[in-house]
Each structure stands twice: as C-alpha cells, then as structure tokens.
Amino acid sequence: MQFFFEVLIGGLLAGVMYSLVALGFVLIYKASGVFNFAQGSMVFFAALTYVGLQEKFGLPGWAVFGLTLAVMVVLGIAIERVVLRPLVNQPQITLFMATIGLAFFIEGLAQVIWGTQVRRLDLGLQDEPIAMLMDRFNMLVSKFDVVAAVVAGLLVAVLAVFFNRTRIGRALRAVADDHQAALAVGIPLKQIWAIVWSVAGFVALVAGLMWGARNGVQFALTFVALKALPVLILGGFESVLGAIVGGLIIGASEKLAEVYLGPHLGGGIEGWFAYVMALLFLLVRPEGLFGEKHIDRV
Amino acid sequence: MAWKKTALAWIAGLTLAAGSLTAVAQQAGTQFVGITGYRVGPYGANGAAFFGGFTDYLQLVNARDGGINGVKLSWEECETEYNTAKGVECYERLKARADTGPTAIHPMSTGITYALLDKAPADQVPLITFGYGRTDATDGRVFPWVFPLMSNYWDAATAIIKFIADKEGGEGGLKGKKIVLLYHDSAYGKEPHAVLEAEAKRRGFDLEMIPVPHPGNEQQSQWLQIRRIRPDWVILWGWGVMNATAIQTAQKVGFPRDRMVGNWWAGSEIDTEAAGPAAKGYYAASLNLAGKKFPVVQDIEKIVYGKLNVGGDPKLIGTVLWNRGVAAAMFTLEAVRTAQAKYGKKPMNGAQVRWGLEHLDLSAKRLQKLGFGAMLPPIKVSCENHGGSGEVRFQQWDGSAWQAASDWMKGDSALVHRMIEESAAKYAAEKGIKPACLGG
Asked: Which range among B17-21, B171-175, B178-182, B385-389 shows the weakest confidence by mean pLDDT?
C-alpha cells in the first residue's frame, strides 16, 4: 500500500509539472480562442535564453529572470505585430496554422542564438527525497516536486486574480468570445493580444525554469508540450483551474498505469496512456471538466 | 503573382547552380565525403559534438597533409535531425553528389541504419556504424556493405556485465543478484535484450528490463519500479535527454549513482553535466577516451581552430563525442588510404572504399603515428569480422570530468560471436543471401 501511495503522490506531483506548461496554452486560448502550438517552443526559448544570458553576463538569478522576462515580452509583442495582427478576423484554423509555423521558427531562432548545447540550470534546488518523510515513513516525496507544486499554485492564484478581478482580464475574456464585438465596444484588441502573449511568455519562462532545472536545458523541452495536451483535453482549454486538476489526474493515472498495467502490456505505456484517457474523456465530456459549453446559433 | 513566379525561378536557378558547382568540385578530383549529420533537434547536442569532430578532422587532413596521398577532400553535410525519413532523404541526395559516391555513410542512428541496410548494397555505398546499428552486421559474409567498427552493442552489454561482475567479486559474483536494464523504447534500446538474457541465464542473475518511452524526459514511474525491485545494479541504455533524466531521477529515488552503468551512448559530458551533482560516481562504457592529450586533438586545435579558424565550438574539443567523431572520420579516411594502396592514388568509389574498410588494419603503432595514441584500441577488420577489437573501456564521472575506471576490456567474445553467427545466418535465410566474402 505504501508503494501505491508513493506512485500516486509522485504522479500527482509530476502532473503539476505538466500543468505548468498547460497554463500557457490556457492563457492564449482564453484570450484568442487559438490553440497555441508554439507554447512548447516558448518554454524552450525562455529556458535557453535564461541560461544563455546567465552564462554570458554572469548576473544573479533575479536579474537574469527580469532580463529573460523582458525578452519574452518583446517576443510576445513581435508575435502580435508580425503574425497575429494581419490575421485578425481570420478563421481560427488559420491562426492555429500560424502558431505551427511560429513553433518551428522559435525553435530554430533559439538554437541559432544560443546553440544546441545542453546546459545545466541550477536553481539551487536538488531533486532528492525529503529526508524527514523518508526517515519516518519510508515515503519518497521529492523536494523539487513540492516546490514545483507551490510555484504552480501561486501561478494559478495570480492568473485567477488577473482574469477575474482586473479590467484587462475581463477584456481578455471578451476578446476570446468575439473579436469583432470586442473591437466594437472599444477594447484594444492589439494591445490585449500583445499582453496575453507576454503573460504566456512569463508562464513559459516559469515552466522552462522548472523543467530545465530537472532535465537540463535542451531541445527536448519542446516535447513537454505533448504532455500538456491530454491535460488540456481533460481540464478544458479555457480553465486555469482545469489545467491544474487535469494535470493532477493525468499525472497520477499515467504513473499508476505504467507501474501496475505497464508490465502486462510490455511497458512504456505512459507515452500514450494519457492520450487514451483524454480521448475517452472527450466522448463523455467534450468541453473538458472545467471548459465552457459552447452553444452556437445555426 | 508575377513576382512569385520570378522568385521561384530565381530559387530554382540558384539551387541548380549550387548543385552543378558541387558537381564541378567533384570532377576536379577530390574525395567527396557525404555526411548525414544532425546538429539541431532533440539529439542536436550529441550530433553537434560528433559531427563537429568529424568535419574538424577532414579540415585537418586537408590543411596539414594536403588530403590523402595528394587527393584533397570535399564534403557536404545534410541535416537529418536524427529522423529516419530525413536520413534516407539525405542519403539519396548525397549518394548522387559525386561520381565516386559519398565515400561511406555514418548514419549515427540505429533507425537510419536499418532503413539503409537494403539500399546501401544496391547503391554500393559502405555504411560505417561505429558503435551502433545492427549488431549481427558484424558478419561481413552476410552484410558485406556494413561495418559496425570497433565494438557492437552485444560487446558492450557483455562487457558491462563483466565490469559489474568484477565489482561484485569476479566470475561467480553475479549469482542471485538483480540487474535492471533501463532502455530507450526503440530499436536501439532493444538491441541488447537477447544477449543480456543469455548472460542472465549463464551467470544466474535476475534481469528486469524497463522501457522508457521517447524522449525520456519523465521517468518517475520507471524509477519507482526500480525502487520497488531494489536492484543491485542498473544498466542505462539511453540517448539524449533520457540519460540526464535517468541520472537525476535515480538521485530523486535515492538510488546510488555508483551502481549505475551506462553504455557508450549514455556516457558523454552532455549527459553528466546536464544532470549536475547527481551524476557524481556514475559509470559508463566508452569506445574512446576523452581529453586533449592526444596529438591529433592538439593538431586540430592548433591548425583548424587556430591558424585556419574554421572549427566549430571550441568548448567541444576533447569531449567524449567530439573525439569519437574525429575517430569516425579517421576510419573513413584510413579506409580510403588502404584502398588507394590497391587501386591507385585517386578518389575512391564505394566498392573500393568497401575493400579498404574490409582490409583496415590500425595497429597500436599506426594509431600512434596518426596521433590517436591510446584514444582507441587497435582494430583489424576482416570479411568475417566487420567489427574489430570488441574492446570497451569504462569511465566514472568525478563531478567534473570522466576518469578511467578500467583498462580496455572485452566482454564475452565467444557468446557474442556465436550469437552474431546465428542471427546473421537467420537474416541470410530470410533474405535469400548466400553468405560469402565479396573480395576486391
């Protein structure tokens, strides 16, 4: 039983790491109704820029964080100017296709600027078991994962306040509902998009730092986006809370499946198990656990 | 729309012009080397080191020696991103680049190697798979165009077992022990299964094999299983991000790193530096020694990076994979040199290079003369044995560099030889191949 709980807790905490990436997708989707295929690339770009700047200038962590955030804001504004602005009022599939192109561009740009070398990212936090839990209960819980969970919790709180309690947040939601109607009531669509892409850049930076500190900063960071997809399907594309709950469910279930079902199915099932779960969930609740139900007049 | 047509015409024209310029370069009598490399993408860091060393050596031979016996080298690198489809596309493009073909192809991917196994003989292009690819291709009577030089995966697996046995007190030391193979869930990761199962049966240890899905950046459940199994040793058969993640996650579950042994694709600075302090104590097999003490490395640093200033990233010089790339290029060029001794001092085609590879004899003295010294063990290739020495050396990460943890050693050569013969014979029967030496 103790092993079961270890797997369960480990899975829940791993799920929080997926949620960190999923939050970036939710932000863009809430504000523009677009599934941002480039979110994984932004995570990679942010983490690589952080370690690149740290190596180049040897500044303290907070200063590099600030500089990287500035770079992500500039990137967000540039995306709005060059990619999104010409596509206002175009079908959403067009915007989605644009983000696919953007993903490849950002990946290439990051490697051109900073090279392809794997870099270590030290946040001063070792990924090792909490000694007290290990000694008393022989229970393995990682310090790093607990910190990641706290960071994700803080992010959710900040984003929830941002969306529900600020004028910009409300404007973002109006833009997501209808671009033209939002423009008609005087909401500055261009600024709103620039803001939301910048905030998504901030979320990408936080996710990139956590994932980069664990695995090293390398191209494989772009793949963490694949882990976020089933989380979004389960939690709902428009819900910040859904990203967290979806992450917890996906994380726990894929780990339990790998440990208890995997050996009977040849192992290595967690790569696809989360997607099977998400597909089954789609059949029952297409909008996800916390997604908004859309009723269109025909 | 007119401007679009004009632009397309310009692009088409420039592409054709570039193609014909390359062809002219080949007619000028150079030895053209086609390189299916990767410097971007998920395994870009590994590829950048290997192919960086590879092209740096080509630069050195041109600049220092004026080519091979006066035949200058030219080369073209095509980016595969470690993607099998792109690898095949690159191969098709490069094989047509020169009258003599691409000299020899280093796919640097087990997947691409498998995809080219049937194509290469038809096109008369030798494949050099230095420490990877299909293990039974060591039997040159069945696979005359494939050269898994130096050591193959089965050599590696049996050498790792021997290394572990030595740590456990010798030949009978593994009886009743538990060993986990943590492997990349791909053709590459599955290569050692058969030989490890045979070793487990022979030596009496319990073997558990746990797959890690690509790319391997999340291994919580695999390591929790390992924690439950409580093995004495873990063998890591990974590539790219999987290696650093495995080392980090081992620390997370409290598994000692000095009870982990990686194969030679899980034993570079890329793996350990990304894992940080967690990697201290970790063992890995190696095909070649790292470091800058070898004269060939010093020559490259002095001439290619210093005088000519055409080298790649100087931080890579002397690293495990960069040195391996230098060695891989040397194998190719020494095969050309060997072939020239028979066919004359001119650019060699695929069939001639194949002959050169099959008669490659790099003794300790020859390696010394080439500036490699002890970086590699001596290699002698024959029709029956397209591999070579089968030797492996072990190293241990001390937190900042790899330190030697053994001398050059062999695994269970008799077992490996028998399994290669059986597997190659099975392949020959399936494909209707009559095993034979091709000759010159």
From this structure: B17-21
The residues with which B68 forms a beta bridge, in sequence order, are B71
At B440, the pLDDT band (50, 70, 90 cuts) reads low
Same domain, B243 and B161: yes
Has residue B81 been placed in a domain? Answer: yes
Residue ranges of B 297-336 with Cβ closer than 8 A to chain A: 313, 315
Residue B438's pLDDT is 85
Select from A126, A267, A272 the Cβ nearest to the Cβ of B211.
Answer: A267
Q: Answer yes or no: is B3 within a domain.
A: no
Distance CA B438, CA B430 (A): 20
Give this prediction's pTM.
0.86
Q: Is B277 on the interface with A (CB under 8 A)?
A: yes
| Residue B438 belongs to a domain | no
User: Is there a domain that residue B398 lies in?
Assistant: no
Please indicate whether, in this complex, the C-beta atoms of A120 and B274 are within 8 angstroms of each other: yes
> Mutating which of A5, A13, A144, A219 best tests the B interface, going by the most B Cβ atoms within 10 A?
A219
How many helices, marked H, and strands, marked E, lie in chain A?
12, 0
- Residue B211 contacts A, CB cutoff 8 Å: yes
How far is B420 from B422, CA to CA, in rounded Å? Answer: 5
Q: Does the structure show a pLDDT above 60 at A58?
A: yes
Q: Which chain A residue shows the shortest CA-CA distance from B38?
A: A116
Closest approach of B278 to chain A, Cα-based (Å): 8
Same domain, B278 and B169: yes
pLDDT surpassing 60 at residue B223: yes
Q: Kindly state whether residues B324 and B267 are assigned to the same domain.
A: no
Q: Which residues 39-58 on chain B approach chain A with CB closer than 8 angstroms?
A: 39-45, 47-48
Phi, psi of B243 (to 5 degrees): -70, -50
Tens digits of residue pLDDT in A111-146: 999 988 888 898 888 788 888 888 888 888 888 889
Q: Under an 8 A CB cutoff, do A259 and B40 touch?
A: no
DSSP for residue B159: H
What pLDDT is recorded for position B172? 85
Kindly give, in sequence order, each residue whose CB lies less than 8 Å from that of residue A88, ignoring residues fewer than 6 positions away. A179, A189
What dihedral angle (degrees, nearest 10) is formed by the CA atoms of B111, B113, B114, B116? 130
Residues B305 and B278 in one domain: no
The ipTM assigned to this model is: 0.83
**Residue B366 belongs to domain spanning:** 29-151+291-390+420-431
- What DSSP letter does each residue of B223-283 carry, written as one string? HHHHHHH--SEEEEE--THHHHHHHHHHHHTT--GGGEEE-TTS-SHHHHHHHGGGGTT-E
Check whether residue B159 and residue B71 sit in a common domain.
Answer: no
Using CB atoms within 10 Å of the CB of residue A93, give its burial: 0 to 12 exposed, 13 to 18 middle, 19+ buried: exposed
Q: Which two tokens stand for residue B54?
A: 């590879």
The total of structural domains in chain B comes to 2
Nearest to residue B392, comparing CAs of B124, B158, B62, B86? B158
Are residues B243 and B330 located together in one domain of the fold? no
